[in-house]
Design goal:
about 325 residues, alpha/beta, Rossmann fold, 7-stranded parallel β-sheet, 3-stranded antiparallel β-sheet, 11 helices, about 15% strand, globular, binds zinc ion
Length: about 325
Amino acid sequence: MKTVYIFGAGASAAEGAPVLRDFLKIAYQFFKEEHYSTELDIVWEFLEHFYGHETTINHSNELEKFPGLEETFNIVDWSLLQNQAFSIRFPRPRLHELKTALVKLISMTLDKSLPSYNGMHQAFVSEVIRGGEDIPTFISLNYDIVLDNAIRSTGYELEYGFYGNHLNHMDCCKKIPLYKLHGSLNWSFCPLCGEISEHNEKVAHLLFKDKYSITCLNCGSDSSQAIIIAPTLYKSYNISRLQNVWDCAGKSISLSDRLIFVGYSLAPADTSIIATVKRALNTINKNREIIVINPSEQACSRYRKIFGENCRVLCQKFTGEQV
Ligand SMILES: [Zn+2]
């Protein structure tokens, strides 16, 4: 039986990663209250300026009244796409700077909040690999490398899908496909040769610092960038290797007999994911089992809305146990 697991933010949250709605608050705690980092000042300045008059933020709890990370990203992206300034204080060059700071905030916060040992993922992955007949495929919407490390700890190598198609990847018995649709903290993109380099450790939080440079493993250039596709309605995937990752993910869903969603909320704003999954399911018409592991009633009802009554919804938290 071919099984595809799709991991969303809820799975990483079970290991300690902040959920999207708490991201700004947690980042403020880490990088303003505990260890002050000037690199993120532009984010707090934008929020203080958000209502058009000066509001001061003095404590992380005050971040709750502001729009969350996702909405802030959407507003910045919309302004940039429409060639508009936000205000006198935030003309377009500063909006670009703000966007970079928001990406930096995500990678720094994840780097700081996740412990190096992630027991639930390790237990889950080793159970899946031990018990399955076919090699499973994992798709992740998370940037962190929790799932990557869990797969590596079983002795398998990772196939991120930058090249080739899913069928080639299934033929290789030493590697397990892990398609990360929104990028990864251990990837760097080289704008010169267009290749993505994969690293064993997280590099994204280093790529924004002036004194660090990550060498492209393909051409040796040292101007690499992070690949963190922001949580916004206006996502862009104009990196051809990343497009290949999406194609591989789509193919794996088409061929699957069982599709298991772990900790993914299937939010209405995730149009690109919903359209990709639906299209993949429609490409090959067969009976599939769709299983959902999510503790939120609201998320569970979203699944019934998108996949009909046939999907099996387990309204429970990800604990690392098999379903
Ligand atoms: Zn290069």
